[in-house]
Amino acid sequence: xxxxxxxxxxSLQTRLLWTASIALAVFLGATGYALEQAYRKSLAxxxxxxxxxxxxxxxxxxxxxxxxxxxxxxxxxxDRFERPQSGLYAGVTGDQxxxxxxxxxGRELPFSMQLDPGRxxxxxxxxxxxxxxYVFSRGVAWELQDGKEVRLTFHVAEHESQFKRQINVYRxxxxxxxxxxxxxxxxxxxxxxxxxxxxxxQVSNDxxxxxxxxxxxxxxxxxxxxxxxxxxxxxxxxxxxxxRTRYRNTLGDLAHSLKxxxxxxxxxxxxxxxxxxxxxxxxxxxxxxxxxxxxxxLARAAASGHSTYSAPLPIESHAExxxxxxxxxxxSRGVICEFEIExxxxxxxEQGDLMELLGNLLENAFKWAKDRVLLTITQQKPQGFRRIxxxxxxxxxxxxxxxxxxxxxxxxxxxxDERVQGHGIGLSIVTDIVKSYRGELSVDQxxxxxxxxxxxxxxxxx
Length: 462
Prior knowledge:
phosphoprotein, disordered N terminus, EC 2.7.13.3, HAMP_dom, histidine kinase
């Protein structure tokens, strides 16, 4: 069955940066849109005022003859009215009157609208054969001497190209300024986030130093908002250490308190008495089992278990001291141990746990090996993890362990061969310690030496 890897959550800094950046982009975009719309309205109003001023100029310079003929000013309000394709057009429509400026000749412009006197209209862009145009129209009534009224509508139109050109210039300028403002604001915002989140990063770094054993607790130099958190963390660290010490001392006291009564009982069994042989054997077996329990509890007391806040221990020097002692014990058999230990390999935990792990596994290998034992230690350093992973392998060239006995072998009190002396609790102690560190212990056959291979894997820590 395939499993989908959980997606790592984004960091606080990344979340805040994304949130602030999106808010900044939305704000600047909305600001740019609002400013452009305001400028567009302002530009349209300016065009309306300009076109209306042209209409009023034509009105003020125009007149009607007695016969109703329209006389326009000789000089237009803008010389572009005289140039074809200038983009500025004028026209007059009304009762038997139709006039176009030289610039509007041959153009189909929207000058057909008739307005009531005093009414004005501004609209656009209106499509024509010259493109989109903005048109201002004004209706007027001219009274002749005979009392007749002539209704006319003055029109002035301007091509939309100038309007678009001004909008584009403004938009480009606006984008330049807003883009510059965005870069500056994003940089300021990034620096503010770095400065604001610095105490949190300091807490994380200090906590890593505590875990590595470089300092005892978190210092009291954080902002007041974080002090309750750091005090609580320090309390957890202190309580963990105190609880581990109490647990170790309690087990040690219990085991030591049982040693003397057991010694007395063993001595009594060795002396001649009225106890028959069958009961003597039964009592001896129970005393032996109690003695094994005492030895096991003493070993557990020495092996204090997983601790989050422990200094890293160099492995090679501890392994050398254990192997040196074992080679002397098994000197008559000529067993030697080879090392393949990665340079700088460290164990994050208690020294007693490391000694129990290496001591039990190596002693077991020395017992069963013909003449050769191999200790291999490697580290795993995946990116993004706070603490490295560790793999410990102990191999021998002994007879190996059958598949059906491998699981049973890790249970308390079970020995690979009843003829070999020992309490049978060494590997169960190793199992307990490995579990306390959230690791894994496996047993298989050595590819290189042919005997048993014990592998301990401690995963990296986020």
